[in-house]
Amino acid sequence: MIPDIIMHNLPAFLIAVPMFAAFATPLIGRLGNERVRDAWVLLAMALTAAVAVLLAAQVYSAGTLVYTFGGASPGIPVPADSGGIPVRIIFTIDAMSAFMALIAGIVGFSVTAYSMASQSRSSGRESYYMLLLLLTVGVLGMVCTGDLFNFFVFLEISSLAGAALVASRVDRGVAVEAGLKYAVLSTLGGLLVLFAVALLYGQYGSLNMALIAHQMQFTVLDMVALVLLVTALAMKCGAVPMHFWTPDAYSMAPAPVTAFLVVASQASLYGLFRVVFTLYNVTLNYSLVGWFIIIIGVLSMVVGVTMALPQKDVMRLMAYHAVSQTGYMLLGVGVGLAVLGDETLMSTFGLTAMEGGIFHIINHAMYKGLLFLTAGAVFYRTGTRNLNQMGGLGHNMKWTMVFFIIGALAIAGIPPFNGFASKLMIYESVFLFNPFLSIIAMVVSILTLASFVKVFHSVFMGPQLPEYQDVKEVPAYMLIGMGILALVVIVFGLFPQVVVDGLVAPAASALVDQSSYIASVLGGI
Prior knowledge:
Elements: H1 4-8, H2 10-31, H3 34-62, E1 65-68, E2 90-93, H4 95-118, H5 125-144, H6 148-166, H7 174-204, H8 209-215, H9 220-236, H10 246-252, H11 255-280, H12 286-308, H13 314-338, H14 343-382, H15 398-411, H16 418-433, H17 435-460, H18 476-494, H19 496-512, H20 514-522
Antiparallel strand pairs: 1-2
């Protein structure tokens, strides 16, 4: 049995474990040997993933959890009638938040295990692991906090750690340039978020999302704040036309970092959905904002896959596909928002579209993370990302090839892998909303399949090139990292209804139900 003190303070442990581990890692690296340091980092990330699983189980079984740091009772917020909720960190974790934390925990542990071997040739590994743990802190804080300013703080933590990790592999200065671009765009996005928070605080005297949502008047300043938040978070999640940082950052970062940057981008996507559904909701023009999200989703799908097709750099190709796949999530949730005011349409296809988009978030994190790790495995053994300089690697890297096939079929929406399940939900529901949009989504999937067939043929098929005759399979830790994600891809694809009913549907319902979110924080006041 797990002690009650741990179960009652899971939100605190979710942040405290990786944060403490991050600051202790450089010291352990200096005092101990490399094996001790690696074991420490792997244990810390395993504990973080375990806490995320326990927290998700608690939230899904008992409902929204409100945790107040520094309060007399961590589960009870300070009453608003005592002068408003004071400056205090409050985590409000509903099913959607727990869903995102679960994604971060699974992918975080997988990329950490992978890094044990993939980064063994690199120097400065203490800094690398410290930054990876801090990136985890930022992502988990973004998806769990119920406070706008603390969302900004965690966004900045993830941005700074992400920029440093992107620039960590000095490749003739190109990686540093990519890291600088990521830092500049993240700073711009952070400033937009901060300005929006200031506008909302100036009007409502509070930073708590539930309290602001309860008092929202949708004034001109509120509209300005909405535009700032949507713009910043759409840019941070890599949506077209604000995606220009994505190819450079994703292609130049180490493969495990890129796999986790996908999750960091999804945390910003979560923030976008939280703003429009929880913070504004009933005050919105659903159709207008919903169509805006739909349009940037369709643009992301089309532009992403179009730009991916001619790429010769395998990491850059996958980066553009990450942009394209983000479009599916925006499309599904955008359709749900567009019909939110109509109960008939919402029950007919709107909620299913949202569930498809949210299901695609976790599916994308798994198969896209897997694909980036397979690309990293190829680079680890060949030293190149150029498709024209590869060939025949499937002869000696059979497990990497199998993992790539699983990820490629999943991203293309081929059954029985997880990408098919979420895309089918999006196709069917969006077709009832607008058949043309559904056709576009299906065409993008066909082009995605064609792109990955090209990659598979270029990398793994054909005769072995002379310089790769002695290539071996990657070390066990890298195979374990890829294997975990591949297993999730297969299981979610074989049992999609179980995942939808158990994880996705509660998350979608929590996102739609603004009143329950507000009541969980302000109820009884």
